[in-house]
Amino acid sequence: MRVIIIGSGIAGLSAAIGLRKVGIEATIYERASELREVGAGISLWANALVALDHLGAGDAVRSRALSLTRSEVRAQEGHKIQFAITANQIERRIGVSPVMAMIHRADLVGALAELLPEGTARYGYECVGVEQIGDRVQVRFANGHIDEADAVVGADGIHSVVRATLFGSDPPRYAGYTCWRGVCRRPAATPAGYSGEWWGRGQRFGITTLPEDRVYWFAVRNAPAGQTAADTHAVVTELFRGWADPVGEMIASTPPDRLVHNDIIDRPPMPTWSRGRIGLIGDAAHPTTPNLGQGGCMAIEDAVALARALTKHADPAAAFVAFTNERRERTAAITHESWQLGKIAQWEGRLSCLLRDALLGLLMPLVGPKSLSKYAAFDIGPLAAR
Hints:
This protein is α/β, with parallel strands linked by helices. It has helices spanning 10-21, 46-55, 58-62, 87-94, 105-113, 161-167, 232-239, 247-252, 295-312, 316-345, 350-373, and strands at 2-6, 25-30, 41-45, 66-67, 70-75, 80-86, 100-104, 121-123, 127-133, 136-141, 146-149, 151-154, 173-185, 194-199, 203-210, 214-222, 260-266, 274-275, 278-280. The chain is built from 11 helices and 19 strands. The strands form 4 sheets. A 7-stranded mixed β-sheet has the order 6-5-14-15-16-13-17, with helices on both faces. A 6-stranded mixed β-sheet has the order 8-2-1-12-19-18, sandwiched between helices. The chain has a 3-stranded antiparallel β-sheet with strand order 3-7-4. A hairpin with a 3-residue loop joins strand 15 and strand 16 (214-222).
């Protein structure tokens, strides 16, 4: 069997690794001219690390990552710690260490790409059409190239061309808040292995330490969709003025041309991710807001489940249906819970925020370990069909 994968992000590379592990030929087509990953950092929870182990990629990724040691949630613009927990507390609960590995997206993509034979991924090929013709699927590209295979996997993200071909091009759902991201040197006040989210009124600031004494930070603000500014760095500096140290230092030490600004979007879960021999994985199938840190993790899980389904079912169409049936409930739950958490975290009324923060301080010490391990304590299982 030969499978064409559209997209060389986390989902596409992981899928190619998984398919090749089970003896299926996989070719990746990517519209970018070279391997690259925009963005900043990503947290890989234990469920993703276990899935990477099943793919044979766990050690390669861990060698480029930094393990979590302590996590916090703060209120009052970072001035008050409402809840703190060590990684050991969660690891004892789920029996997996580390519970989270923090890595730059470029390092993750690079580690995955190095596990594939040269030539597996072809760059500079923008997919413009996918069509099933009998028991083959034909893919057309903007440069005039045409290829065909037994099946096609759309791993081309939330704005997936493959998804639009199958189900139409409805716009994503805007969450109501926008996000700035950056990577800077790690401030002396921020210990290595730290990850935290600091809440204000209609605003949040996240801190994730990375290897090589770096920090990935994100700044979130309620705003209408599609807003832009001539000086993005000045905007985010002003919005987060007065927040607890070292927020100002992190923003100031990030080069303005390295800031990434995106509105936060997802799509409501849908029941079907495939039509015949054409299927979707990762953000093309089930994009989620980043509030639970599970988007990339689910894509890696998908890669394992898809490879297993394609070994169990000789008909790719049946394999895609089985894959969707296995993955739909879990991914929908994460998408829904992440959406709801984001709404609460982005409250901006004075009284509602006082109530939220008080409840956070009271309840999280009681339910925090269980809550944080809810989705991390999951094993997608081995590549071999069960």
